[in-house]
Amino acid sequence: MKLILFGTSACHLCEQAEVILTIILIKFSQLELELIDIAEESQWQQRYAIRIPVLYQPDNETELGWPFNEHDVINFINNA
Fold first, then answer.
1. What is the pTM of this model?
2. What letters, b where the CB count within 10 A reaches 16 and e where it falls short, cover 16-41?
3. Are 24 and 74 in contact (CB under 8 A)?
């Protein structure tokens, strides 16, 4: 399963989200995580600018917005 984390550089909340997701990736080896910097595309800036970090599951187009913890992410994955 692929997950996308929308964030940007110098975002302390995005860094916290990455730590949580690193732990999840160790537990769920079948996961793939792509990090997308919203500064690269205006469409992402418009959609996520005040909401980052946002975890996105492209297969079912669901989002998990910040704040989230390890338990929230596991539930998000299981419900995908």
1. 0.93
2. ebbebbeebeeeeeeeeeeebbbeee
3. yes
Q: Which tens digits make up the pLDDT trace of 3-24?
A: 999 999 999 999 999 999 999 9
Q: Where are the domains of the chain?
A: 2-78
Q: How many CB atoms lie within 10 A of CB 57?
A: 17
| Domain 2-78 = CATH 3.40.30.10 | yes
Please report the pLDDT score of residue 1 as a whole number. Answer: 93
Distance CA 59, CA 79 (A): 12
What token pair was written down for 47? 């959609």
Residue 8, phi then psi, degrees to nearest 5: -160, 165
